[in-house]
Write a structure and sequence with these properties.
Arc Repressor Mutant, subunit A; Nucleotidyltransferase, domain 5; five-stranded mixed beta sheet; 3 domains; alpha/beta; about 15% strand; 12 helices
Length: about 400
């Protein structure tokens, strides 16, 4: 049985981690703080966890013992010390639990089962054609059942299900799932059918959470993950928490106007960023149909062939994205900006080559913590299955992240 920590600040020592609290009622927060410290550093001794969290040695001994008994931490071989007894390093137990992530768009549902370390254990892909919400819930629950059967993982060992869908501006639009999904209680209905906790998250936020848990953003509390898919969005991490905004529309950077009077956008404005930086924009630039399942492979092949139309799109997209990043950096002053999403790795690398150097901003002029003026824009986790893997990270993040109390 997967052991859960119920409901889900920030002094720093010489290592990265969230401070604990010695208040008796905050045990759950402290358990999360221990897991967060170990996750960030791969393996830590009890003494190192004590220094990072600021908790007493006796408290850490009790917490580590409890987490080890629950199967969430495992002890490694003792390490020789300069003085005293050898200390055992503790790390996350990959098989301490599992999570399911599902990405849904207008063509496909892709589900993946990952372990506590974010490693993919099994994957299922199913073609769909803009299903109604009710039909969609039935399809997704059947995929969950099949995923557990084929991977031979008991349902009670699963923390939950994360479902990644396009952001609110395109859930029912041309690049979204289909009509009726915006107000439909997907999480509630799918939880009823699957018997598992379900969290619905937009694809950009889900990918940002995966970057935070398992990618280059694991030691960043403040960063932006720019998600390039059929549209364009961003996941915003502020003080270690995903920021959604009042209506859940934070990060809809695709609708920043970068070309006044430019291309018409489905939001009603002209010159929106996603009309130039998105797979939809790339397909339009090279004359490929966006609803063709082979469009992504064709785009990648044309890049390999040094197609002039692809090169022209990359140059224009990078120019527009620089303006969008400048606006984000000047507003949020993040530690890092990650570029990822559905772009194949070679295409993402080609875009990055065009993008750098970025326009001067408050962040780059004052330094990024890596040296004054040094750019801190980098590639994030990017793959056709990035939203599914991100969605699988959401239940783990919600379970173990030491959020505000």
């Amino acid at each position: 049985m997967t052991t859960r920590i119920s409901k889900p600040g920030q002094n720093r020592s010489f290592m990265q981690g969230v401070s604990g609290t010695n208040l008796g009622f905050a045990k759950e927060h402290n358990l999360r703080a221990v897991i967060d410290a170990v996750r960030r550093h791969d393996a830590l001794t009890r003494a190192e966890i004590t220094r990072i969290t600021g908790l007493s040695a006796q408290t850490i001994s009790n917490l580590v013992g409890e987490l080890e008994a629950r199967g969430l931490l495992v002890a490694g071989a003792p390490q020789k010390a300069k003085r005293g007894q050898p200390a055992r390093p503790y790390s996350l137990n990959p098989n301490g639990g599992y999570s399911i992530g599902i990405q849904v768009d207008y063509q496909m549902a892709l589900a993946t089962l990952v372990n506590l370390s974010g490693q993919e254990c099994h994957q299922i892909k199913k073609q769909i054609a803009r299903p109604s919400p009710n039909d969609g819930v039935i399809i997704l629950s059947e995929i969950i059942d099949r995923l557990l059967i084929e991977s031979d993982v008991a349902r009670e060992r699963v923390f939950g299900v994360g479902v990644a869908i396009p952001g609110p501006f395109c859930v029912s639009g041309p690049t979204g799932i289909g009509p009726g999904w915006v107000e439909f209680p997907v999480a509630e209905r799918l939880s009823e059918r699957s018997g598992l906790p379900v969290i619905v998250e937009n694809d950009a936020n889900a990918a940002a959470i995966a970057e935070r848990l398992h990618g280059a953003g694991r030691n960043n509390d403040n960063f932006i993950y720019i998600f390039i898919g059929m549209g364009l969005g961003a996941g915003l991490f502020i003080n270690g928490q995903i920021y959604r905004g009042l209506r859940g529309a934070a990060g809809e950077i695709g609708h920043i106007i970068v070309e006044p009077g430019g291309k018409i956008c489905e939001c009603g404005n002209r010159g929106c960023l996603e009309r130039y930086v998105s797979l939809r924009a790339a397909y339009e630039a090279i004359g490929e149909a966006e609803d063709d399942p082979d469009s992504l492979a064709k785009l990648e092949q044309r890049l390999n062939d040094n197609d002039p139309a692809v090169k022209a799109w990359l140059k224009d997209a990078a120019e527009k994205l620089r303006m969008g990043i400048l606006a984000l950096e000047s507003t949020l002053d993040p530690e890092a900006v990650f570029i990822g999403g559905l772009l194949p790795s070679k295409l993402a690398e080609a875009l990055m080559a065009e993008l750098l150097p970025p326009l001067p901003s408050v962040t780059t002029l004052q330094g990024s913590g890596q040296g004054s003026g040094e750019p801190h824009i980098q590639l994030g986790r990017s793959a056709p299955s990035a939203p599914a893997q991100g969605a699988a990270s959401v239940p783990i993040f919600n379970e173990f992240n030491p959020g505000p109390t």
